[in-house]
């Protein structure tokens, strides 16, 4: 059942519902979301709240299971939340977002990278705060394509919506759509066994590939990287993890992560590298409160709470229809450079960063031992996001309307 973990100080509160995994293989990403949301609410309640009312956070554990996430939406809606947010699995976000629409509530996706979330499965009640697989893959390909010339790639992919769309986007942008030349396997999701991962890695080893596209997330990525290290694959193959978070890097460990390349929508190094004052203030407040650096998961939840606040104040209301109008096409700068809630698909168009994990000794010498990521490249959102025509093509292929409903 939903729990109130940040009560409002006084008065009739505006309730926000966080549908996140506090257990299961993505729990670290879930905890980061809860921490980011709580920090934002603490700051907002220290001021004037939202529309002069205090804010309260209700949470429910999705355990990264779509059916459980749907039940949570119903329970949170019964508690009169003004909006819902959460993720850490695209299957969860898609299912929960559809259920939120039945209650006429907004659903903000935090960690949900599958193209379908704002593509084939998109609807007017869903807003995705983070980037999608298309954006991450295009950024990675832009950085990697020269070095991939003549290389054989092997895809080891989580067998669900995020994994499928990520692999498809990566193959498209790296020109590795020929599966006989660039083979791959899919690994059971959720809860792959160690033996499942090792069997897949043996296929990667035996393929003779130069590059391992490790399309895994959360603890599953850490499991795969540990097995790859034990099998000696890290010495033989370049390993690319298309979607990284600080929590994932910490779970895998500094030695295991060394040299791994991936993409992030944000990491705590970004505001210092590019001088974004509000981003620096967030990082420092988070470290002071929690004794750890914020991941992109935390930043996403923090941003969502503030974006809800700003939309409500522009609309003068928490009415869902008015909030949708206030969000569509809105541009803002928060923890990094300018972002936009794009009107036609509700995708947040934003910069993408290509990163590589630093050497182990550098990480261990850094403050809190959490300086994992070296930023290799920064690509603006308008260069990597789907175009309207590409979005229309995805909708047509899925038999969906060419406008959000």
UniProtKB/TrEMBL annotation:
CDD domains: PBP1_SBP-like. Keywords: Signal. Residues 13-357 form the Leucine-binding protein domain. PANTHER family: LEUCINE-SPECIFIC-BINDING PROTEIN, PERIPLASMIC BINDING PROTEIN OF ABC TRANSPORTER FOR NATURAL AMINO ACIDS. Belongs to the leucine-binding protein family. This is Substrate-binding protein.
């Amino acid at each position: 059942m939903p729990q109130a973990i940040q009560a409002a100080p006084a008065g009739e509160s505006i309730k926000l519902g966080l549908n996140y995994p506090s257990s299961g293989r993505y729990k670290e990403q879930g905890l980061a979301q809860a921490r980011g949301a709580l920090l934002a609410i603490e700051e907002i309640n220290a001021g004037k709240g939202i529309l002069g009312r205090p804010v309260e956070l209700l949470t429910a554990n999705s355990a990264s299971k779509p059916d459980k996430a749907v039940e949570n939406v119903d329970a949170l809606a019964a508690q009169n939340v003004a909006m819902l947010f959460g993720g850490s699995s695209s299957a969860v976000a898609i299912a929960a977002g559809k259920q939120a629409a039945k209650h006429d509530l907004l659903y903000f996706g935090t960690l949900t990278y599958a193209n379908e979330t704002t593509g084939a499965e998109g609807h007017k009640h869903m807003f995705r705060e983070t980037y999608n697989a298309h954006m991450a893959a295009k950024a990675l390909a832009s950085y990697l394509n020269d070095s991939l010339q003549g290389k054989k790639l092997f895809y080891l992919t989580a067998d669900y919506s995020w994994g499928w769309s990520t692999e498809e986007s990566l193959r498209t942008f790296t020109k590795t759509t020929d599966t006989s030349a660039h083979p791959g396997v899919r690994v059971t999701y959720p809860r792959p066994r160690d033996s499942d991962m090792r069997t897949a890695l043996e296929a990667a080893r035996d393929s003779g590939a130069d590059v391992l596209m490790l399309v895994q997330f959360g603890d599953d990525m850490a499991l795969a990287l540990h097995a790859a290290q034990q099998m000696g694959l890290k010495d033989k193959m370049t390993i690319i993890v298309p979607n990284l978070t600080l929590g994932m890097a910490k779970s895998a460990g500094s030695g295991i992560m060394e040299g791994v390349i991936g993409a992030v929508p944000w990491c705590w190094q970004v505001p210092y590298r590019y001088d974004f004052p509000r981003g620096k203030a967030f990082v420092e407040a988070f470290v002071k409160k929690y004794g750890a650096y914020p991941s992109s998961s935390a930043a996403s939840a923090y941003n969502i709470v503030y974006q809800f606040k700003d939309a409500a104040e522009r609309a003068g209301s928490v009415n869902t229809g008015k909030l949708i109008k206030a969000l569509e096409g809105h541009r803002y700068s928060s923890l990094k450079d300018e972002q936009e809630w794009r009107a036609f698909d509700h995708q947040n168009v934003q910069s993408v960063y290509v990163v590589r994990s630093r050497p182990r000794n550098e990480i261990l010498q850094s403050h809190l031992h959490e300086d994992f990521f070296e930023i290799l490249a920064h690509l603006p959102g308008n260069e990597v996001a789907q175009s309207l025509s590409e979005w229309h093509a995805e909708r047509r292929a899925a038999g969906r309307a060419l406008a959000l409903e």
